[in-house]
Amino acid sequence: MSDVWFISIDCYFDRFCRRRNEDPVEALRRCDAALFKVYLDLRVKRSRIKKESTIFLYWKRLSQVYAQKAATWMSDSILFDIRNKEKAGILIDDLAIMLNHLWIRDDEVFSHERLRVQLSANLILAGATATRPGALIGQLLYENLEFQVFPPVLGDNRPRIALIVNLEHIKRTAGSSEAKRFAFREDDMLLYDPLIPIMALAFCDDAFLNNIEGPQDLYNLVVPYDSDRIRLLWKKEWLKRPVFRDVEATEDGIQISANRALDYRKERQHLIRLGRAIGIEKQLEWYDLRRGSGKKLNEALTPEERNKIMGHRKGDSSTYLQYYMSNFIDVDCQSICFGTAPQHDLVQLAARLRRHDGAPKELTVDQLAAIHNNKKLVEYREGRRRAVLDWKQQGYRSREEAKGTEMWERYDHYNKEANKLLNWPLPTSDEIRNASKSELSPRRSAWGDGGGMCLIRGVYVVKFGATVTENEGNALLFVEKHLEISAPRLYAMYHDPPSGPLHLVMEYIRGADLESVWESLSVEAKSSIATQLQPMFAQMRSLGPPDDFIGGVCGGGIPDPVFQTDWPNPSINGPFRNAEEFAGGKILKETRKLLGAFSGEMSTTSHDALCRFAMGSVAGAVQTTRTLSWKTA
Q1: Hey, which residues does 633 pair with through a beta bridge?
Q2: Does residue 512 carry a pLDDT above 80?
Q3: Distance in angstroms (rounded) separating the CA atoms of residues 552 and 410
Q4: Per its UniProt record, what SUPFAM superfamilies does this chain match (predicted)?
């Protein structure tokens, strides 16, 4: 491994060392724990790193390069706390509470109730097999499952049914990957019975061959005397399809996709939400369930059997000890050491994940207000705003153009500090689907396009639907770059699913729309609003389009109903090269002669519905007026 390759594998460490006037290779070989801690601390403070796993990755890269340079492994005493995180386990009692809550007490509305059934099946299968979650979630196809019918026990007429699960996507260990097969049977405790949810999914998909449409068809089967079982086959078109699938938007609303596998990250969010709903303090991972099940297997099986099931290939207990044993010693050491009466049940209760039914599930309105009014956050936002004004006064039209200047450095500093204080994740698909779509825009809800506007966590406004276009998102970006008009900030613009409706994730601005309060305002308040809107109009009209272009900010036609047609027609939709073509398009659409009226007129930037989409904060006097909708700029 050359020094050049070392620099490429971790240029940040190279830069860090050279600023300290140290050779990066020699610093690495010295293996100074204090130096590594300072480096990793700076990586967190001076970057947008938000995940603990990212720091683990940086550490892993450094330790690998060290092993190459020093021709030895790093001592376990170096940064032991970085390489070892808390290894909690979801025990069987915790799993029972989670499943009970999921089916009986949960008031969460899934975007499709099949997601609830799939979550239950994943919890049971992961808990019973101690398998790595990556081998189960999103990977299990119908061809990996098989129901088998066996003759009834003596004295009973009801056949016994088994489910065979073949896990093929096993992590490669010691150079090879070996699939594992598990057999599941009906359980007296229905909560733990994996056959029920898997059977329900198969019946819902109509995946069984030979017209098996319900449970009664299965239990009416009779095993021939010359056979020990009946194997139930799947229809050919279902063999390669995933069992656990995601949702997609259709003309009939949200439906289960026929081929799109359930995303691991999405199922992780379902697990986290379920843990919070029952009051568990820790942000759950699917590996917590694997650790809890691994503990049970370790107690009941020989080391060889346990290693085979969990996929450990070393032949000893070193892997289990290093990665799967909980940091909490759940044995009664007092009883062992002092010979007193044991209370193992109490110790194991203490070892369980902490939970409380009354734990808060989300921030209150007051807490959200406290965050937005945080003095530091207000200071950072103001510093960021001043930096933008400064570079615009210097003639820079965008952040990219100002990059490298002192103003850009100030903006970057304040932006990073604000993001550290306000680290809000973007809304998830489930949050958007489950939110009230009418609370912000009754007009959009009445359009019936399957979309709407919703408020997420009191922070984001999400606008989506068949009538939402990229022009509005690009218009917001255009305004942010070229004008000083106060408008909502655009955080994200995407299609969900990729072929589905467009989603705009924007800043939530508190206030009242002027259309609803205008008649109740005083003359002074109306005058104040007009005074604030006047410079906005002036800014828009001072910014003309490029030469030989009249159209939308995206470079296409004019996104206004006056120029819209059922089928694309550039002669009417635009873009136009001059005022005469613009007037000609108007004539074609409205069948009236406007060529003379528009000829010679100068075109400027405008807004089609300022009267409806201006918004103010009214408290005695109008303080701030902002324009919200930019869909037809």
Answers
A1: none
A2: no
A3: 33
A4: Protein kinase-like (PK-like)
State the pLDDT confidence band at 594, using cuts at 50, 70 and 90: very low
With contact defined as beta carbons under 8 Å apart, do 502 and 464 qualify? yes
Q: Cα–Cα distance between 407 and 508 in angstroms, integer?
A: 27
Instruction: Please determine, for residue 447, whether its predicted confidence score (pLDDT) is greater than 50.
Output: no
Hunting for tokens 């568990």 — which residue is that? 280
Residue 466 included in any domain: no
Q: pLDDT tens digits for 87-137?
A: 677 877 888 899 999 999 988 888 899 999 999 999 988 888 877 788 888
- Both tokens of residue 352? 């369980």
* pTM, two decimal places: 0.49
Last residue of a domain, one of 54, 83, 112: 83
Return the HEC string of 388-411: HHHHHHCCCCCHHHHCCCHHHHHH
As a whole number of angstroms, the distance between CA 157 and CA 153 comes to 8
Nearest to 265 by CA among 285, 282, 289: 285
Residues 61 and 110 in one domain: no
Cα(119)–Cα(262) distance, rounded to whole angstroms? 10
Instruction: Give me the pLDDT at residue 234, please.
Output: 94
Residues 55 and 160 in one domain: no
Confidence (pLDDT) at 427: 82
Sign for the pseudo-dihedral over CA of 15, 17, 19, 21: negative
Return the H-helix or E-strand segment holding 164.
Answer: strand 160-167
Q: b vs e for 448-464, b when ≥16 Cβ sit within 10 Å of the residue's Cβ?
A: eebbbbbebebbbbbbb
Q: How high is the pLDDT of residue 201?
A: 95
**Other beta carbons within 10 Å of 425:** 11
Range of the domain at 187: 92-294
Q: Is the peptide bond before 242 cis (omega within 30 degrees of 0)?
A: no
- CA geometry: angle 377, 378, 379, nearest 5 deg: 90
Contact between 158 and 166 (Cβ < 8 Å): no
8 A C-beta contact, residue 551 and residue 557? yes
Least confident of 35-49, 165-179, 479-493: 165-179
Mean pLDDT of 470-495: 80
The single-letter DSSP state of residue 379 is H
Looking at the structure, tell me whether residues 277 and 394 fall in a common domain: no
**Which range among 40-44, 246-250, 445-449, 548-552 shows the weakest confidence by mean pLDDT?**
445-449
What total of structural domains would you count in the chain? Answer: 4
Final residue of a domain: which of 32, 63, 83?
Answer: 83
Find the helix or strand (DSSP H, E) in which 430 lies: helix 429-434
Confidence of residue 622 (pLDDT cuts 50, 70, 90): very low
- CA-based max dimension of the chain: 105
Angle between helices 264-277 and 114-129 (to 10 degrees): 90
As a whole number of angstroms, the distance between CA 274 and CA 289 comes to 13
Question: Per-residue pLDDT averaged across 55-71, rounded?
Answer: 73
